[in-house]
Amino acid sequence: MAARHPVFGAPCWASLLARDLDDTQHFYGSVLGWTFRPARLGDQFVVAETRGVPVASIGALAPTLQVAVAWTPYFVVSDVDATASRIRERSATVAVGPLAFEMGRAALAADRDGAVFGFWEGEPLPDATVKPGSPPFRLELRTYDAIASAIFYGEVLHWADDGLGGIDVSYEQDHVVLRTGHGSGHVVARISSGGIEAAVDPHLRPRWHVSFPMDGVRAVRAAVEAAEELGGVVVAAEETAYEGGDQVTLRDPDGGLFTLTDR
């Protein structure tokens, strides 16, 4: 069983596997102002911080892993093997792992629509753990059918399970909204319909969008300019109806997609 964590089934961190760790640190450090320090997961990982607060982790992509460069959310589970079995039973894919680390075990999976996510069993991750009330990033799954996806993840991650989960699931303004606690907790993720089947652009395919809040519109614009100077590309810019703010999705030089919000 995993060590105690505030909420099983909740996102616990976001991670990027990069082809060149030094180049990737330079890109995100220049674009988002992040600083980096060694991670407890090993010498091939670093923790990104902003103003001394952990935001996410970046690791070196092993040459033997045939996976795309992508920002990936991880969810904490009580038993990584049981979670992997539930994923396979529902015709989804466990792509990597479970892999053992000093602090616990992790695996990468793809849901039935191809959206990639990870899950973690072990000690709470002080390096980059989502803290109740102030998550350092925001998550939104854009998929073909929000309700069907919510059912899949709910069964796999034990959402709305009083005995283990503790994630409250509701339907609001055409989005499935996930909160810690039962209606009164903070929002940890949203699931939205709108993914396009067989889209050439990976931005339009079902995937988990990892968004990093910025200090206003000017900060977003400065980050976009810095990204473009270093080989990044703007993929989409849009207004988010449910947040009342704007967001810009970019592709880093290795192909990793990430989103910046002005709130």
TrEMBL record:
In what residue span(s) does the VOC domain sit? 10-122, 135-263
Top-level taxonomic group: Bacteria
UniProt cross-references to InterPro entries, sorted A to Z = Anthracycline_SecMetBiosynth, Glyas_Bleomycin-R_OHBP_Dase, Glyoxalase_6, VOC_core
Matching PANTHER family? CONSERVED PROTEIN, GLYOXALASE-RELATED
Name under which the protein is recorded: VOC family protein
* Native source species: Streptomyces niveus (Streptomyces spheroides)
Q: What is the lineage of its organism?
A: Bacteria, Bacillati, Actinomycetota, Actinomycetes, Kitasatosporales
